[in-house]
Amino acid sequence: MQTGPSRRARMRAALEREARDEARRLTAAHGVEGLSLSAVARAVGVSPPALYRYFDGKKGLVLAVYEDLTDEFVSTVSAAARREDPEDLGAQLYAATRAVLDWSLGHPAEFDLLMGAGYARLATESAVDQVLARELGGLFGDLFTRLWQRGGLDHPADDEIDPALRDQLLTYRRLIGQEFPVGVVLLMVTCWRQIYGLLCMSVHHHLAAAFGDCVPLFEHMIDDLLALLGVERSPAQRTGAAVER
Amino acid sequence: MQTGPSRRARMRAALEREARDEARRLTAAHGVEGLSLSAVARAVGVSPPALYRYFDGKKGLVLAVYEDLTDEFVSTVSAAARREDPEDLGAQLYAATRAVLDWSLGHPAEFDLLMGAGYARLATESAVDQVLARELGGLFGDLFTRLWQRGGLDHPADDEIDPALRDQLLTYRRLIGQEFPVGVVLLMVTCWRQIYGLLCMSVHHHLAAAFGDCVPLFEHMIDDLLALLGVERSPAQRTGAAVER
DNA sequence: TCGCATGGTTAATGGTATTAACGAAGTGAT
DNA sequence: ATCACTTCGTTAATACCATTAACCATGCGA
Question: Which single residue of A184, B33, B108, B193 could bond A180 by disulfide (Cβ 3.0 to 4.6 Å)?
């Protein structure tokens, strides 16, 4: 008979899992600032100080939620891309971008922690590694790599780019582990600033008085971006509805 | 001798002003969530419950800060635009956009409350009117109006725009009180999603590992946008340094 | 079986928001 | 000038919250 992890280790793992899940639930329900150590303790049937054996106080708890969210977000987005035809890069770009939007709209409090103001706060008090930037950048980076390899991607030449910017782009390219020219990195960042802008607008209900449903804006943006990348958008994608979860 | 406002009224106004300023200071120093009623009370030399005579609890205090910030932000940006040559629309667009960036980078906590996650939270618990959207939209809208009147602005025709989107754009146009065609509204929103995206990235230190100084990205974006609008960028602007305050 | 690391407890400290009950003092009318 | 009323402050109490300290039971390895 395998001994496996000890009773203690199993108990510990189970309680930690439970606490993380409850913390996530509270975050979703009441925002990052509505997350309280005490409430989590209450929910998992333990006294507040007990959680200090599991997390480094409240900031540790928030960090744990952040980690879980990172995993969930990255796998959601990459799953959405993998669901498409491997040859249809346009469809994959659409699906990935759309998944980012859908997840964020469906989980605004979590979005805040993952990619909004919550992240900035978190990053100052806990040493959080750039896993999201790497993973998400890598995911989109792979798509851009294939676009570039396929040819026909119209990107600026190295010497057309301001040297200061070029250095930064090179750093970023290294971060996401890609090999394409800086001009392609620039193209990627150009896309991302638009996606991220619309994302923040949507999630924060900016201009909500006019743009309650932000899908029309999103569709228009995707058209712009795919055109910029010289990718044909197959008609089938235009009917794509939001993918929940 | 004029009686003017009574002693009571003067005292009240003075204390409220003091409290608002202190609240603003605390927000800047410790973020929106670091703003506490008690701390403000302590700073203005009064007991915490006293502030309930002035503000509707904490959410009222936050709302007051929001109002003050709105004024400051709008006047900062419009002042920056007015400082430029009235005939040089490109310079005005640059200056206004740059002022938005500079103010936001210099006041990250305030930015969060004004245009980030803090706003979303605030808007749910307090009835906040859309003054910022109107004012800022109006400011940029005026520039776009003049661009359009001058001619040469390449915008999509009405019937090239998806009907659902067109309706939203019309609503937005009414909100900002402009008269130009929907295609121009769309152009404006296209610019704004880029500005706002870069803004959020910069303020939240997204991708900070590569883009610590975000001005190169900003300069590249402005080039893109001015090209999109068919505006020549005068060489003088390229040397423009950040304007503090 | 013993000793210790682990993981829980309660108690205490100090911070927060908010409401209630109360009192001093400014204000305006008689 | 005095009176009543409103305004604006107070203190006290309640109920959260995070965090640390002191303590105790128990699982686990030697």
Answer: A184
State the average pLDDT for chain A. Answer: 93
Is the Cβ–Cβ distance between A41 and A62 less than 8 Å?
no
Whether residues B115 and A206 touch (CB distance < 8 A) is answered with yes
User: Helices B182-203 and B163-176 meet at what angle, rounded to 10?
Assistant: 80
Whether A109 and A117 have beta carbons less than 8 Å apart is answered as no
State pLDDT tens for residues A96-134: 999 999 999 999 999 999 998 888 888 888 888 889 999
The residue of chain B with its CA nearest to that of A238 is: B162
Domains in chain A with CATH codes: 1-55 (1.10.10), 70-239 (1.10.357.10)
Question: Which residue is closest, via its CA, to the C1' of C20?
Answer: B49
SS3 A226: helix
Distance from CA of B205 to the nearest CA of A (A): 7
Q: Do A207 and B162 touch (CB under 8 A)?
A: no
Using CB atoms, pick whichever of B133, B164, B195 lies closest to residue A209. B133
- Residue B176 to residue B183: CA distance in whole angstroms: 15
